[in-house]
């Protein structure tokens, strides 16, 4: 009997040791999250389908007299944007996205090489349609013949016009991973194969400082980084599907119109063998040339001033109440 008890005791000790080893070797939620970030940084899935939508938006109570701004912000509720980004082996990227606003679809077809960016002139058509929905006729901005001449072409954008395109280098990716690695492991939770981490405004500012470290406009960069202190970002990574969900919440401490804003972004990486075709030389037109075709911003400014005198306080109340 004593011998049997001793054997059972040894088996329990062995099993406990195995269990302790397995638990110790099991990947923690933080480790899985870091692996996901590393995969994304290496761009292993060169196609990404994405969708973004405004899940909530609150305006401050009667703190702004800019009626037109308030009306535009009210339209942002339930706003949705969707699209696809494809990068080929040569490093060329094609970004196609659309957003429905005021009953109109604003479409963007942007092609990026390593040095330049090209915007399809189809955007001009959708932009004019948007302005027409606001009551501003397209013929006040551009001649019909000029619009036909640029149809089917691509506008060459400089770095500033393209939004100061920033690519994440291997060094950036390494530093980004180091930032995440230093975070408290208890901040990462796992449920049903989904790892979630909520980034504070302070953490987002730290990441932004890394990504914008080579920005030419240091003052503008500092201003935006300061804004991030009012932002929290809940990021969820699906370990099986390798997709991401990001919920960004912005609650400014000081803002004349906006009280809070929440945006949900879904990113679904996919494999592909597509080739991104850059526009031919004959299809490219300089940004300045297209800009010269328009009547200038004064027409829009005059329209905005006129609209503000037409929209009454009673009209505004009917929109928000």
What does this structure look like?
By secondary structure, the chain is α+β, with helices and mostly antiparallel strands. The chain has one domain. The protein has 11 helices and 12 strands. It has a 12-stranded mixed beta sheet with strand order 7-8-9-10-11-1-2-3-4-5-6-12. β7 (188-191) and β8 form a beta hairpin. It is globular, with a radius of gyration of 26 Å. Residues 9-25 and 310-321 have low confidence and may be disordered.
Short overview:
The chain has helices at 2-25, 29-41, 67-74, 122-133, 144-149, 170-181, 201-211, 218-227, 287-293, 297-310, 313-320, and strands at 47-59, 80-87, 93-101, 104-112, 117-120, 154-157, 188-191, 194-199, 231-238, 244-250, 258-270, 284-286.
